[in-house]
């Protein structure tokens, strides 16, 4: 296991439902990420949090709402989703660190939540 | 436009042979490049990182090369085993200081016994 857990592992929801995805990391990292992975497409970065502050929102629709209450936990709140939002949602974390002035950014991924929107 | 390209067709090889996967990129100047392994329905797992000033990196049966002139990285698995069958992703830091990676779409490797 990578030290990053995600719940639930599978989620089926209707377009009018509200649900939340949870991610927890036990690695002492300070940066956390949400990615979307659709079939045959590269991982798409959605949000980045660094020391609990959102540092990036990659033009994600407002029906996805992230929350980072502390450095160990990350949530993705979902509401009024569309069928095309069905995908594998991956959470990742990475350590803060500098090596020769470069940020060192190995990412540790959770197992993902397989989301199906009906 | 910026692109990261990995061979979308699956690579099929015989057990014991060396698998070589390619990652090409355009219009980026990454400070480093990473390779990940992903099994079906699972999250990617980090394998190797290589910096722009490094030509080659090794870890057990894995070897990565990084040619910033060709804008290409090669990922080799020597003495391949059926357990190496998975999708392999390359990832670049595409904006210095931005704490995120941009991933290629991956190449699926199938090692036949």
Q: How would you explain this protein's 3D organization?
A:
The complex is a heterodimer of chains A (118) and B (113). Helix content of chain A is 0%, strand content 58%. Chain A has 118 residues and is mostly beta strands. In chain A, the strands form three sheets. In chain A, strands 2, 4, 5, 6, 9, 12 and 13 form a seven-stranded mixed sheet that branches. Chain A has a four-stranded antiparallel sheet with strand order 1-3-8-7, with no helix packed on it. A two-stranded antiparallel sheet of chain A has the order 10-11. The N and C termini of chain A lie far apart (31 Å). With 113 residues, chain B is mostly beta strands. In chain B, strand 6 (56-59) and strand 7 (62-67) form a beta hairpin. In chain B, strands 2, 4, 5, 9, 10 and 11 form a six-stranded mixed sheet that branches. Chain B has a five-stranded antiparallel sheet with strand order 1-3-8-7-6, with no helix packed on it. The chains are: A mainly beta (118), B mainly beta (113). Chain A binds chain B through residues 2, 4, 31, 33, 40-43, 45, 48, 50, 55-56, 88, 90, 92, 94, 102-112, 114, and chain B through 4, 8, 31-32, 34, 41-46, 49, 51, 89, 93, 96-106.
Précis, in short:
The complex is a heterodimer of chains A (118) and B (113). Chain A is built from no helices and 13 strands.
- What radius of gyration of chain B results from the CA coordinates? 14 Å
Gross morphology of chain B: globular
Instruction: Work out the oligomeric state of the chains in this entry.
Output: heterodimer
Indicate the mean pLDDT of chain B. Answer: 91
The number of distinct β-strands of chain B equals 11
Q: Secondary-structure element sequence of chain A?
A: EEEEEEEEEEEEE
Largest sheet of chain B: 6 strands, mixed
Beta-strand residue fraction of chain A? over 45%
**Tally of DSSP helical segments of chain B:** 0
Layout of secondary structure:
The complex is a heterodimer of chains A (118) and B (113).
Chain A: E1 4-7, E2 10-13, E3 18-25, E4 31-37, E5 44-50, E6 53-57, E7 64-70, E8 73-79, E9 87-94, E10 98-99, E11 102-103, E12 108-109, E13 113-117
Chain B: E1 3-6, E2 11-14, E3 19-26, E4 32-38, E5 45-51, E6 56-59, E7 62-67, E8 72-77, E9 86-92, E10 102-103, E11 107-112
Parallel strand pairs in B: 2-11
Antiparallel strand pairs in B: 1-3, 3-8, 4-5, 4-9, 6-7, 7-8, 9-10, 9-11
């Amino acid at each position: 296991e990578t030290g990053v857990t995600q719940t639930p592992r599978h989620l089926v929801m209707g377009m009018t439902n509200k649900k939340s995805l949870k991610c927890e990391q036990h690695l002492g990292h300070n940066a956390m990420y949400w990615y979307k992975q659709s079939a045959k497409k590269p991982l798409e970065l959605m949000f980045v949090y660094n020391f609990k502050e959102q540092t990036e929102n990659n033009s994600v629709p407002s029906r996805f709402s992230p929350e980072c209450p502390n450095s160990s936990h990350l949530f993705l709140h979902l509401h009024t989703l569309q069928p095309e939002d069905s995908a594998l949602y991956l959470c990742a974390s990475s350590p803060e660190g500098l090596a020769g002035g470069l940020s060192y950014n190995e990412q540790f991924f959770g197992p993902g939540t397989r989301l199906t929107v009906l | 436009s910026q692109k990261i390209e990995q061979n979308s067709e699956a690579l099929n090889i015989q057990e014991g042979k060396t698998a070589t996967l390619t990652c090409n990129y355009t219009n980026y100047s990454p400070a480093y490049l990473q390779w990940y392994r992903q099994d079906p329905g699972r999250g990617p797992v980090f394998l190797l990182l290589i910096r722009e000033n490094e030509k080659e990196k090794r870890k057990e049966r894995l070897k990565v090369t990084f040619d910033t002139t060709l804008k290409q990285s090669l990922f080799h698995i020597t003495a391949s085993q059926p357990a190496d069958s998975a999708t392999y992703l390359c990832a670049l830091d595409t904006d210095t200081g931005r704490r995120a990676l941009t991933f290629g779409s991956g190449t699926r490797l199938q090692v036949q016994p």
